Amino acid sequence: MKEWNCVQVGHHKNIGKTIEQWQQNGWQLHTYQAQGSPAIVNHYLLFEREE
Question: Are 41 and 2 in contact, with CB atoms under 8 Å apart?
Fold first, then answer.
């Protein structure tokens, strides 16, 4: 069975570092999505791992 966790990243400069930290803890990036307006964009990373 898989475990899922969604992480919100406020600035695109932090996406790579966030992915790296989660992968070091055994998580794999499943989906990436960005939403918002040109002034404010939120980035959502959905991670998965086997339990």
Answer: no
- Residue at token pair 């918002």: 36
38: pLDDT strictly greater than 90: no
Listed in sequence order, the residues at least 6 apart from 12 whose beta carbon sits closer than 8 Å to its beta carbon are 34, 41, 43
Tell me what pLDDT residue 32 has: 97
| Full-model pTM | 0.88
Contact 22, 16 (CB under 8 A): no
The number of angstroms, rounded, from the C-alpha of 7 to the middle of its chain's C-alpha atoms is 5
